[in-house]
Amino acid sequence: MAFDISLPARGTTVRTTLGATAPEGAALLIPVANGEDGIEVPVTALAPKGLLEALVAVGAKGTEGEVTRLLIDGSLVTAFGLGDASEIDDEAVRRGVGAAARALNDVERAAISAEFGVTPVVEGLLLGGYTYTGLKSQAEVLDDENTDAETPQTTEVTVVGADEAEYNAAVIVAESVNLARDLVNTPANYLYPESYAGVMGEVASFAGLDIEVLDESALEEQGFGGILSVGRGSSRPPRLVHLTWAPSGAAKKVALVGKGITFDTGGISLKPGSGMEDMISDMGGSAAQLAVIAAAARLELPVRVDAWLPLAENMPSGTATRPGDVITHYGGITSEVINTDAEGRLVLADAIARACEDAPAYLIETATLTGAQLVALGNRTAGVMGSDELRDLIAETGRGVGEQAWAMPLLEEQEDELKSPIADIRNTHNARTGGMLFAGLYLSRFVPEDVEWAHVDIAGPAWNGGAPYGYTPKRATGAPVRTIVETLSRLVDKQ
After folding, report:
1. Shortest CA distance to 23 belongs to which of 91, 105, 107?
2. 482-493: per-residue pLDDT in tens?
3. pTM of the model
4. Amino acid 105: pLDDT
5. Is the confidence at residue 140, as pLDDT, over 80?
6. Is the separation of the CB atoms in 97 and 80 below 8 Å?
7. What's 170-493's CATH class?
8. Residues 6+ apart with CB under 8 A from 277
9. Which CATH number fits domain 15-162: 1.20.1440.20, 2.40.340.10, 3.40.220.10, 3.30.1360.170?
10. What angle do CA 46, 47, 52 make, to 5 degrees?
């Protein structure tokens, strides 16, 4: 397993290997599609004779998400649907392979052809096969009466005919996504600012990153008032972690910022109790950016990347920040705290201001920031705000890799709502309208005009509270790791 880190539990997934042929006795993973005249079997060297007839006999359709298991001439065949035969693309393959991977718990060996794309096949396997059983005292048993049990994956899948370089790159990206999932899935009594910073140190050592950790004393000394204000109510003090990938000859500098609220009660503006347990996911932005910079280093991307990850636990107590308090952010901007549950923008503002001191060409920030994102765009589509060109690039890239994203504006009419009578700005406008956009506008105040920047709100996409689908498991999804890694690659190409 990549990333030997100190977590109480890790997710598991299938193991993949390269091969020229399918191992003897391996189950065969075969894509099928839904055509005008019914189910179709695309041409692939692994498809056994008689497969189409067998699929027709059992009523398989080849629709997206359909998985059909058959025994043909002594070989186990798992046929996975790609959907409409006229609309097959990388994402259809990724989703289909992901669904197939979840059906492999009781299979020792399997094989799949890389004919339909190395990257979507590998990502589909490693992401779709991911399962997190957590801290259960014993694994659930998969049997006829418990068909939904999430048992650890042990299957080894041979990817037949894949280009080695493309295969290795896809593995690195998928492992990074699963790292982010593991972190987000970890209960907050195990992952809090100090322990989280320790895990980041382990990742840095593995990936070859430089790391600097600012503790509460350093944060106080250097004036990180936003991070300190959010962490003030917790017995577990905050941290700011700075990670660096600095390859020789890098012509461009990119800053990454990610929200790391290890648990969010809302503080004094306490959240309702129902569903609060899912607030372990409020550090999903930081987990994603940690995974991104680790992937950048392992892929040896020729771009300097600095990740600034603010970590805090938002708790109510006698020392917690109150609504109506005024705080001073790093760099001097003052902010009136209207709602302590709008805490993410407070820690992000400090990190953004510090990151911009180093004059990056681009700054990409991501956070599980607002419930308004879910209202506007649903559970699976991130909202992207910021500089027009970078915003649009990230939104387009996200849709291209299967992590849905949509460009959103920053509204001129909200400028007056940002003003405070007792500070430079206020952290919320206490309105039901445009909450996602207001948060983006707030963050824009900390970005100099000469820095292209983007804010990616992943409040919905970072966490799947429903059933698995495609290559997306329950709970942590790892979004938007693949989007940002691919964006870094595209920015490199622009150099």
Report:
1. 107
2. 999 999 999 998
3. 0.96
4. 84
5. no
6. yes
7. alpha beta
8. none
9. 3.40.220.10
10. 175
CB 15 within 8 A of CB 129: no
What pLDDT does 19 receive?
Answer: 97
Alpha carbons 32 and 64: distance in angstroms, whole number: 9
- Summarize the confidence of residues 390-404 as an average pLDDT: 98
Quickly tell me which residue has 């959240």 as its tokens: 271
In contact, 100 and 76? CB cutoff 8 Å:
no
Residue extent(s) of CATH 3.40.220.10 domains in the chain? 15-162
Q: Which tokens hold the place of 236?
A: 């577990």
Longest dimension (CA), the chain: 78
Strand order in the sheet with 425-426: 326-328, 334-336, 425-426
Tell me the H-state helices in 76-215: 90-101, 118-128, 164-185, 193-207
Q: How far is CA 259 from CA 108, 184, 242, 349, in A?
A: 39, 12, 13, 10
CA distances for 149 relative to 27, 107, 152, 284, angstroms = 21, 15, 10, 25
Cβ burial, residue 58 (10 Å; 0-12/13-18/19+): exposed
Closest CA to 231 of 194, 258, 285, 271: 194
Q: What is the mean pLDDT of residues 311-321?
A: 98
Distance of CA 128 to the CA centre of its chain: 14
Q: Which residues, including other chains, have CB under 8 Å from residue 85's CB and lie 6 or more apart?
A: 33, 34, 35, 36, 40, 62
Pairing relation of β-strands 334-336 and 326-328?
antiparallel
**pLDDT tens-place string over residues 62-114:** 999 999 999 998 889 999 999 999 999 999 999 999 999 999 988 999 999 99
Q: Which residues belong to the active site?
A: 271, 345
- Give residue-wise pLDDT tens across range 320-334: 999 999 999 999 999
Q: Above 60 in pLDDT, residue 144?
A: no
- As annotated, the residues of the chain forming the CATH 3.40.630.10 domain(s) are 170-493
Chain position carrying tokens 């590998």? 122
Least confident of 150-159, 329-338, 418-427: 150-159
**Looking at the predicted structure, is the pLDDT value of residue 139 above 70?**
no
Distance CA 125, CA 302 (A): 28
Distance in angstroms between the alpha carbons of the first and the last residue of the chain:
34
